[in-house]
Design a protein that fits this description.
307 residues; alpha/beta; TIM Barrel; 8-stranded parallel beta sheet; 12 helices; 10 strands; 40% helix; Xyl_isomerase-like_sf
């Protein structure tokens, strides 16, 4: 398997850039390198500086690269289009010029990617994981969201050569099986790919192995997480936001939860996946002191599993 394992700032609790408890981005880079990863994602818009010489120097000092940037915002509201495109422009303008990893022979699109995720809706956040009670978008709102995604993907590809990959995310309006199916029907493969996240798939009631196989023709990039089964059962019985559940420990180091990684390895070997997989474990940033041990444990487990 020609696969490189990377990680992301969310392992240090970096999801909301306005959270006053976030660790320094330089500390994150230090610990990414210390854990043995060669690369990482940029993290949410506004976390790392958009200063090309500064970020390039800090990456090169640690022999790191950036595998992807992230749009994590309200994709539904048409009034948000200008902000989404500004973020796309600035993020892609940076990641496309930072130190780059080499392209794998079987990789469909070169890195860096732009992961695109919908977020910012209370009515869906509190229904994360509950497909039976989560409201769905009207046809008009869905069409508006698709138009926003296509505009992001078009700008990223045509101006910067960056491939946009849509990431179904618990608590957003692209989460459940019916929404992923509708998404791939409405956005052609030539416009954008998929980033399937094993943890979000499980959290939202899908089998990660089956989901990876079903959408493999559209799969350009993968996220790995694991889920503590006892905590998952407990939070599913409460009215709780997705990141509140993460703060309580619903995500755990890979290999200690209930996702079948030997089956995932067998599947990806059979399908011939080559490229990049990013390890994530969302948490409360006030608990980020435990991140280094956790990401080392995840990396060690995956190495033992043949990744």
């Amino acid at each position: 398997m020609s696969i490189t394992i990377t990680t992301a700032p969310c392992c240090w609790g970096v999801d909301d850039v306005d959270n006053p408890n976030l660790p320094s981005w330089r500390l994150v880079l230090d610990e990414v390198a210390a854990a043995g990863f060669g690369g990482l994602e940029l993290g949410p818009y506004g976390y790392m500086p958009l200063d090309l010489p500064l970020v390039s120097r800090e990456l090169e000092k640690r022999d790191l690269f950036i595998v992807a940037g992230t749009i994590f915002d309200n994709l539904v509201d048409p009034k948000n289009r200008d902000s989404l495109l500004r973020q796309t422009d600035e993020i892609c303008g940076l990641v496309s010029r930072l130190p780059q990893p080499r392209k794998r022979s079987g990789q469909r699109f070169p890195t860096p990617y732009l992961t695109v995720m919908d977020w910012g809706h209370d009515e869906r956040d509190y229904a994360a994981g509950h497909g039976d009670r989560a409201p769905r978008l009207s046809d008009g709102d869905w069409a508006g969201m698709i138009a926003n995604i296509e505009a992001i993907a078009d700008l990223a590809a045509k101006r910067y050569g960056v491939r946009a990959v849509v990431h179904p995310h618990a608590g957003g309006y692209i989460e459940f099986a019916d929404e992923i199916e509708r998404l791939v029907a409405d956005i052609p493969a030539s416009a954008a790919g998929l980033c399937i996240d094993t943890g979000h798939a499980f959290y939202s009631g899908m089998d990660p192995v089956q989901t990876l196989e079903k959408y493999y023709p559209r799969l350009d990039y993968i996220h790995f997480k694991d889920i503590d089964p006892a905590k998952y059962r407990e939070v599913m019985g409460r009215r709780i936001r997705f990141f509140e559940a993460c703060a309580e420990g619903v995500m755990c180091p890979i290999g200690r939860g209930c996702i079948d990684y030997p089956a995932i390895r067998a599947l990806l070997t059979r399908l011939g996946y080559e490229g990049y997989i990013t390890v994530e474990q969302e948490r409360d940033p006030r608990n980020s002191g435990g991140t280094l041990a956790d990401v080392k444990a995840s990396r060690s487990y995956l190495a033992g599993a043949g990744f």
